[in-house]
Amino acid sequence: MWYENFWWHLVIAAVILIAYFFFFIVMFIWTERRVIGFFQIRRGPNRIGPLGLFQGIADVIKVMLKEDIVPNKTDKILFWLSPLMAFVPVMMILAVIPFSKGFQLVDLNVGIIYIAAVSSISSVGVFLCGYACNNKYGLIGGMRGLAQFISYEIPMLLVLISLVISSGTMSVNGIVAAQSLPNIIFMPLAFVCYFISSLAEINRTPFDVMECDSEIVAGFNIEYSGMKFAMLYLVEYGEAVVMSTLVATLFLGGYKGIFIDGPIPLLIKMVIVFLFILWIRATLPRLTVEKSMSLCWKFLLPLALFNLLFTAVRITFFPDLAQWIVVLVSIVMTVLIIYLWSGLYKPGRELQHE
Amino acid sequence: MSRHYGQGIIKGMKVTLKNLVRGPITVQYPEEKLNLAKRERGISLAWNPEKCIGCYTCEDACPHHSIHIETSEQPKQLRKLLPCIMKCPAKVEAAKYVRAIATGNPEEALSIIREQLPLPSACAYVCAHPCESACTRKTVDNPVAIRKLKRYAVEHDDGRWMKNVKQAEPTGKSVAIIGAGPAGLTAAYYLLRKGHKVTVFDELPKAGGMMLVGIPRFRLPEDALMHDVKVIEDMGCEFKFNTRVEDPKSLLGNGFDSVLLATGAHEAAKLGIPGEDNEHVLGGVYFLKDVALGKKIEIGNNVVIVGGGNTAMDCCRTAVRLGAKNVFVLYRRTRNEMPADSEEIDMAIEEGVDMQYLASPVRVFEENGQLKVECKKMELGPVDASGRRSPVPIEGSEYIIDVDTVISASSQYPIVPESFGVKKNESNSRIIVDRAMATDIPGIYAAGDNVLGSSTVIQAVAQAKTAAKSIDTYLGGDGNITEVLHNEMPLPLRPGRPNPDNVHDSVYTDVDTRITNFECVEECWDQETAEAEANRCLRCDLQYEVTHYDLKGGQCVYCGLCVESCPFGALFSSSEYERATYTTEDQVLHKEHLIDAPKSSYYHSELDSELPDQSLLLDIDKEESDKKKKKEEEKKTEESVKEEK
Amino acid sequence: MSFKTEEYVLNVGPQHPSTHGVFRMRITLDGEIVKDVEPIFGYLHRGVEKLMEMRTYKQGIPMTDRLDYVSAINNNWPYVMAVEELAGIEVPEKAEYMRVIMAEMQRISSHYLAVGSQMNDMGSFYTVFMYMFREREKLTDLMEMVTGQRMMYNYMRFGGVSQDFPKEFVPLLRKFLRIFPKYMKEYEDLLYDNEIYLSRTKGVGILTREDAINISTSGPVLRSAGVDFDVRRDLPYSIYNKFKFDVPVGKNGDVYDRVWIRMEEMKQSASIIEQALDMMPAEGKYQTKVPVVLHVPEGKTYKRIESPRGILGCYLESDGSDKPYRCHFRAPAFINLTALKKLMVGQTLSDAIITFGSVDLSMGEVDR
Amino acid sequence: MRMGKEIKMKTYDALSKQFEYVKTGNGFAEIPSENILECTEWLKNEAGYDYLEMITASDHNEKFLLVYTLINVVDKTDIIIRTSVPREKPEIDSLSNIWTGADFQEREIFDLMGIVFKGHKNLKRIVLWDGFEGHPQRKDFKDVI
């Protein structure tokens, strides 16, 4: 068939992916504002289009038409380059995500490494944004962001390694295929670690330390306006799209549905993950940067290491254990370890209250 | 207590989920509208041109200078029913004569006063001025000092008012008036005007009655009183002084066709405490009478006056002038509750009187030849029937003062002699009359304090006027005693806004010299002050047309002070949100916009019943409104089912 | 080899989301640690005290509204009390109750704003803020019903208040008081157990008892440091000695305590309103008639009340004319600001911001 | 609150006994400006008035009147202290070294009324900008606009 031709496949998949990416970014902007609105007992955008659906499009048009201000004394090249540098890698991650059996841009056999590698480039871009704009707020934001990225990369990677061990493959498609039951049931601890660290990776509440408006006034993107700001905005939501897609793929069984397989279960899972992120955002206050660091190093890293150990032991010594036993043991173990560990871990200074 | 990571977060997430389920509380504007409370203050001031007289009070009250008024020079119309005239018992046209003074016409002013009041000089010094307490200017700051303006007018008496007098032909009837006090003199004046022959009997050696003996000379000089009396005397009145009439009925047959009883209130009330029969305990009225008639009284150095009325002030100031070194006034309440004029109290304090508030005498006794008064401290309790806070004695707070004389100036009352034979009340202190001031004996009339109890000069004058009317009618006259004495004046052009100054200070003679003699204390204003004071009058009776009434919306802060300050209730604030948009250029709302604006009940509670009930967002708590709707729907369906049946 | 670090100055404000007004702080930072802080203000200075000298006594009332624009009714009160004392005006009993009810409503709504925006500073992105505004809106509506305004109520007058309660007001207020505890419970669930909230507030921005007194802080800031002092109870004005209420006192003087005190004070205010509604005489005057241009006798006086932010005092001098000779306001937020250096130095930037938020200032009052 | 009143009166008495130059009036104590530091220190350390509530000043033509209110937060009483400085030499000792709370208030008075507080470590304008001329709260201040 003609679409089995490599080049045709590449073009069509790329177009679909880009369309998917931008469509969901725009829809997520709307969803976020609308859903957060409902969480906050207000209505959110409701004027442009039915239910305010075209709000995202209107926003895009607005930022595109705005004047592009380049402040004095900025590092001009980096100022131009860094939004792109932050934006492009986010889109690139989608290349290895399978949307259906056999529908994937490229089925890399080192897909997981590719994801880990590419996603860290984006954080460099974000840091450079903060650095290039010659603003103290921006610099503080960038520094905070960079520190957080680097820290949270570690538990995240450890979890990914445990996934690789469990599925026996590095290909993302392989991991999806290996999930006879979703990984979240198999490895709840891994899911918890991965979810929290990816929240930090994409700068979502409660880890939005690098652009917290109440302290450093949007941090790294403080001096950006117009299209460059739109780019950073796209990074934020693009990361959210990619991250929810990744969680849905890696932990919720990807394109595998209960009744049908294909893109629709994946999209549903992805939206559910995103709504969960929004729910967290609507509820929780922000952590400070040092508390978020301490959470990473003192709480998540031990858990991720333990998870790696646990998975490795399971695969090495009990490869043929019945599924229900594994599920049972891992759920009990997760609850127990989180309960014990969080008793030891203190997020802040305790005083003699009550 | 140890907390485990996650529990609190999950609890919080439950709360947010609950609120998500509750649904939004905001509304989608054009489709849904909020049900809000009515807003009672806003830029859209409502203005009633019929009530507005253009007095500029609102412009002055505005803290941000956002109201601008211009009035026409000529008044649009004359209003009647002014507070100062309505409150005056004798209906002296205060507004009119104040205006005459303001335009530099004190002579005309006197004519206007004379039309209603035959004792202008006496009133100018001692009137209780109910007009001032009713004055509209009081809502702005302090009332216009109408009495002092009257004094100014009286000082400019050039006899011009005589020209317009219409003296009736002699009727041949004669009237006996018992008592040459304010009531008697007034009645005499009007009856003489109507052509009757009048004889005034009095047991005192001079005319004036209570004005002569009840008011000390430093408040009402004898010259002023005699000036008024002389006018009446010149008209042909016959005075019989030092004559006490015991039986008025006997006069009726003996050459008199009618008798007016105007004997006044000359008895002092007792203190009602043990020891007051002592010879050094004097009644205030008797004391003043003795001083006025020139008797020598030894009061010693330490004098205590009990009471807080004007009589008490007169007594204490008289005592100071008689040479007493230490004069105390004991009053049960505080200065705020004192019935005496504030100015009188001030002057008394100035003259060295020691005011002891919240103190009341308990007993008077003599010890080693020294008269002593035991007093008790009081404190203010709850509000009593008279609207003042009643004093409550503090136990164990007694203290003793050494005194030489105690003067009881708490109150005074008349005693109607048995020999008069008229109908009296039970305590013999009032003659009972009908509305025409007639007693139960035909031909005998009564007026003044013996009808009213202890009252004011102007009240007595008012009663005497009614009595004179009745007597004239009784004697066959038409009973019309109105006079027109003043020449028609053109209505004055507006000299701008009313004088914004506060009430002008009175001028008094120097304290050190005045306490040594009985000369009049209050001095007359000069022309400048008098005219400035007269210009403070808002002129409630002249309605100027307001040519411009602008509200600068950009400066208005919706404080509502203009609405509150308007003395005539001509300003309202609006109850609409939407009018708060500025439609006109420069954000100025003009007269026309203000007239059409809807009115709210802010500061005009009389409008409250006309306006719709207030409702709020609070009302549409979802569950309840849903329940209501369901119930209504059920009712409707039930009704429709019934109808079908 | 060792790293060389350099301190740098960060300019927070005047346009900054967390300064609650046009306030500026020059913060010297070492990394993220605050080394020094210098508050700079005056951007909102309108010279209210001087302006009041140029206006008549009554025209001064709208000026006082604009001091602490979050609790306008409380601002009227000391000024009105001072004038009443000098001029010897008596306030009818019913008016006193009305004043108490309105002022306590204002206190609740001010604390709603304080706690809500505190959570917003903490990054809880307007959620608590919006929830609190739901009830605050109802209070504002109720107050609008009485005064006709939503912010600058201009409610108190010499010798009473400007308007009587409309007949619908009291039932609606009672209804609000019924739903109020239910929502308070929700906020306690949302805040007090949340680990992130606890970690961010406990032990942050500590002010010791000695410092709190020495710096003359007042209101929740003073009470959070363990000083049991509330003007309403200890130097009672108006009719506060008729009510029974507790004064919540903190232990550590940290941000947690300040928020906790505000939440508790809201409950106490609600109970005061309830008592006042029960005790309020049904009939009676709400205002003594006072001339528009009041001439106040010569004298000096100082009156203080407990505003939501602390001790709000009014020093008034009169020379017998129709205008105040000198009118000074002891603005609680202005003096609480003195504590800022003590509170912020040594903390990270994020903690410094929420500490600043917990002082709860309104710039209208600070700059005057 | 009769209790509080008694304590207050006792304090006034004690103050006037301690320092001969103190004159007590109806509800306030008058202190010469040069002794203000001594008196307030005594009040703080001996009488327990450790809370400086307010400082303010007013312009009385030939002199400036300064008013201090102190609160005893334990006994719940307050007292008022007045002092005056001549217009030609508006100087007084600063209380900001005893009470940090006086810091901003004294700066505000310096800014608006022009009274110099000796010993204040950072006496500069607080609400007005640095180059501003004159002291607006003074009665003879002419509006420049």
Helix-strand pattern of chain D: HEEHEEEEHE
Q: How many beta strands in the DSSP annotation of chain C? A: 8
Report the principal-axis shape of chain D.
globular
- In helices, the fraction of residues of chain C equals 40-55%
Strand proportion of chain C, as a percent range, falls in 5-15%
The major β-sheet of chain C equals: 3 strands, antiparallel
Gross geometry of chain C: globular
Overall pLDDT score of chain C? 86
What separation lies between the terminal Cα atoms of chain C?
53 Å
CATH superfamily of the domain at 2-93 in chain D: NADH:ubiquinone oxidoreductase Nqo5 subunit
- Helix and strand run of chain C: EEEHHHHHEEHHHHHHEEEHHHH
At CATH level 3, the topology of chain C is Cytochrome-c3 Hydrogenase, chain B
- Low-confidence runs of at least 5 consecutive residues of chain D: none
Taking pLDDT < 50 over at least 5 consecutive residues as the criterion, the unreliable ranges of chain C are none
State which percent range the strand residues of chain D make up: 25-35%
State the total count of DSSP E strands of chain D: 7
Look at the helices and sheets of chain D and give the structural class. alpha/beta
CATH architecture of chain C: Orthogonal Bundle
Structural category of chain C is alpha+beta
Describe the overall structure.
The complex is a heterotetramer of chains A (354), B (645), C (368) and D (145). Chain A has 354 residues and is an all-alpha fold. Chain A contains 13 helices and no strands. The N and C termini of chain A lie far apart (73 Å). Chain C has 15 helices and eight strands. Helix content of chain C is 48%, strand content 13%. Chain C has 368 residues and is an alpha+beta fold. Chain D has a domain at 2-93: 2-Layer Sandwich (Beta Polymerase, domain 2), CATH 3.30.460.80. Chain D is built from three helices and seven strands; from the N terminus they run H-E-E-H-E-E-E-E-H-E. In chain D, the strands form two sheets. A five-stranded mixed sheet of chain D has the order 1-2-5-4-3. Chain D has a two-stranded parallel ribbon with strand order 6-7. In chain D, strand 6, helix 3 (102-113) and strand 7 (116-118) form a beta-alpha-beta unit. At the B-C interface, helix 1, helix 2 and helix 20 of B face helix 2, helix 5, helix 6 and helix 7 of C.
List keywords for this structure.
heterotetramer, C: 368 residues, alpha+beta, Cytochrome-c3 Hydrogenase, chain B, three-stranded antiparallel β-sheet, 15 helices, D: Beta Polymerase, domain 2, five-stranded mixed β-sheet, two-stranded parallel ribbon, 7 strands
